[in-house]
Amino acid sequence: MSGLLRKAMLLACSGVLAASSAMAAVPSPADSQVPCGLNLVGTTGGVADVKGQFSIIVRDLAQNPIAGSSVVIDFNACTPDIRVCSIQPHGGVTADCSGTVGEINAVTDGSGTVTLRIVGGANNPGGNPPGAGHKCATVYADGVNLGTINVGAYDENGGGGLGAADLSAWLSDNFGGGYKGRSDFDCSNSVGAADFSLLLSASFGGGSTTSCGAFCN
């Protein structure tokens, strides 16, 4: 084999390896893990309620976890009722309030995972006002769309912590007709008894005694 041919083959192999390496770092929606829904919570003693905890796992086409991936949850289509807090107390979570509702940002750990508790609420004073539909938020990893996610809000009215007023607001959604994603806590695309049970659990859990101090918008 001539030196020129050998060099050409080495360059070709290097190119294939480089392309494979680049592809391996690209998030794959089919291989990543995004939950069906998330539930916005309040805080107690400055700590975000564990009732709102969920995880997203970012993987490539070979199902390898991607560490250091930039994860964004875009809530800007969740109008007219969903609100996220401008200050997020859970470690590693930040808010970008430049849009109509806002975005949440986090970075995956060594296992390709971000574990989040997002502080926020809904603008639901009761009486079954209009709300965002099913899976209004979109999840991105390094700019790749991983899919949509439903947004429930245990803190239905966004004030005074989680309490009787939120239970009353949820009941108005349940019996008032018309689907509202804010009251669908189990991501079933319907509002019913299972959601009320989750709301009661969060209410009596004591982790959301304080609402967001300042919403993005």
What do these coordinates show?
By secondary structure, the protein is of the alpha+beta class. The protein has one domain. Helix content is 22%, strand content 23%. The protein is built from three helices and twelve strands. It has helices at 3-24, 164-176, 193-205, and strands at residues 37-40, 43-44, 47-48, 54-57, 70-74, 82-84, 94-96, 103-107, 113-116, 120-122, 137-141, 144-153. The strands form four sheets. It has a six-stranded mixed sheet with strand order 1-12-11-5-8-7, with no helix packed on it. Strands 2-3 form a two-stranded antiparallel ribbon. A hairpin with a 2-residue loop joins strand 11 and strand 12. It is globular, with a radius of gyration of 21 Å. 41% of the residues are buried.
Q: What is the count of helical runs?
A: 3
The radius of gyration is 21 Å
Summarize the main sheet: 6 strands, mixed
Please tell me what the overall shape is: globular
Provide the domain count. 1
**Overall mean confidence score, pLDDT:** 92
Q: How do the SSEs run, as a string of H and E?
A: HEEEEEEEEEEEEHH
Whole-Å distance between the termini?
A: 68 Å
Give a count of the beta strands, DSSP E runs of length 2 or more: 12
Question: Beta-strand level of the residues, as a percent range?
Answer: 15-25%
Q: Which secondary-structure class do the elements indicate?
A: alpha+beta
Would you identify the regions where 5 or more consecutive residues have pLDDT less than 50? 8-22
Helix fraction, binned, reads 10-25%
Q: For the largest beta sheet, what order do the strands appear in spatially? A: 1-12-11-5-8-7
